[in-house]
Amino acid sequence: MSWLSARSVLYWAEQSATGVTLRDLCQIGLDRNLRREHGVFLHRELRIRLAQRVLELESLPYRLGERSGIRDVIEWYTGFVHLLEDKRFLLQFGVKPIQQPTESPVPYTEELDKEFTMLLTRVFEEHSEVIQAMAFGVQDLIAELREDYSHVQAEVDAILRRFFTARIGMRFLLQHHIESFRNREGHSGILQLACDPEVIARKAVEGIHHTNPGTFTYVPMHLHYMLTEVFKNSCRATVERHAESFDDPLPKVHCHIVHGDEDVTIRISDEGGGIARAALPNIWKFMFTTMKKTPWSGRRDDFRTKPGDSACNPLQRPKQGGVLAGFGVGLTLSRLYAQYFGGDMKILSLDGFGTDVYLHLNRLGTACEDLPQATPTNESHHESSIIQRPRIRSTSWF
Ligand SMILES: Nc1ncnc2c1ncn2[C@@H]1O[C@H](COP(=O)(O)OP(=O)(O)OP(=O)(O)O)[C@@H](O)[C@H]1O
Ligand SMILES: [Mg+2]
């Protein structure tokens, strides 16, 4: 890392990150002026969030930050901080802007916002392969520690949860700003104003039961991801338990959607044999899977991550050829997506019969982003949205 990058990462990591509510983001995406102001906020906020992740990754235990994969993520994020830098910040350190072709001005005007949005598109696309890169670093540690890994697993899981939650937030803000540049009909950025969970669920599976049909404002992409992961698990369990030959009749996977005053709850029930009570805590561990052959095996040596590899996959799930399951990240990541805006995911199992997954989604949109707690260098985070805060003037930022 260059001297300037290190300086700028340290500077931004010490600032406080600010959470945003889904309701505010919806308003911001629909109002050109608010959106422009939000762009100005984002220009600073992204550098803070990226820089905090860099410092956090660098200070991970078990030399995780030095391992292939995680080291790449540190490099990419440092590069993004640098890419979003403003010339006034560089001038502070006596660097002439002309020497920094990547500097990005604060997007005060429509023209600058257009440039900024294009830059964000680039950052978003290059933000890919991160889950996979992080997981490879952890796989490296697992291979080194072998059975001793169980002693450090809880700590590593907490690190990954924290990191992925922060990443969900960053990608959400990036994508919302990009998409709200030209809103699609019925959308504010990536939020669908009248998101019908039944329509999303039908994209993933048949046999949906909707008690009181309705819609709410939500992120269809997140919902689709969570439902696909849960349905995939249910289908796999059902097939493994009931299918001896290819034309065996299989019990249906049921999906029940209920709109409450506060939550939209989706219950997915299968008859795939359930999960033993003793094994239940394991399913929330990163990289826990009961698949015999995992897609990780034999892949560490040829790990070559390259930014931009899977830009077409917005949620960046690790993928390899036709492998559908076995990474052991489906449930943990889905729960993080649910929790990101105040929802949750719970699993109840009738061991020997089947599994019920409850997906609770906050329909009011007032829950603040689930930002990770304070970083090592940052004592406190604001938990307010930009709409409720007094307007920030650029001069106070430097
Ligand atoms: N509906 C279910 N019925 C039975 N077991 C389940 C069910 N859902 C999850 N499990 C158990 O939980 C484990 C973890 O699930 P998770 O979705 O996180 O990972 P995975 O399916 O193994 O891999 P992937 O990352 O590809 O989803 C599964 O390997 C399986 O043993
Ligand atoms: Mg799964």
UniProtKB/TrEMBL annotation:
SMART domains: HATPase_c. Its main location: mitochondrion. It is an enzyme of class 2 (transferase). The keyword Protease does not apply. SUPFAM superfamilies: alpha-ketoacid dehydrogenase kinase, N-terminal domain, ATPase domain of HSP90 chaperone/DNA topoisomerase II/histidine kinase. The keyword Secreted does not apply. Transmembrane segments: none annotated. Gene3D superfamilies: Alpha-ketoacid/pyruvate dehydrogenase kinase, N-terminal domain, Histidine kinase-like ATPase, C-terminal domain. It comes from the Eukaryota. It is found in: Mitochondrion matrix. It catalyses: L-seryl-[pyruvate dehydrogenase E1 alpha subunit] + ATP = O-phospho-L-seryl-[pyruvate dehydrogenase E1 alpha subunit] + ADP + H(+). Its EC number is 2.7.11.-. Keywords: ATP-binding, Kinase, Mitochondrion, Nucleotide-binding, Transferase. Residues 218-365 form the Histidine kinase/HSP90-like ATPase domain. Belongs to the PDK/BCKDK protein kinase family. This is Protein-serine/threonine kinase. The lineage of its organism: Eukaryota, Sar, Alveolata, Dinophyceae, Suessiales.
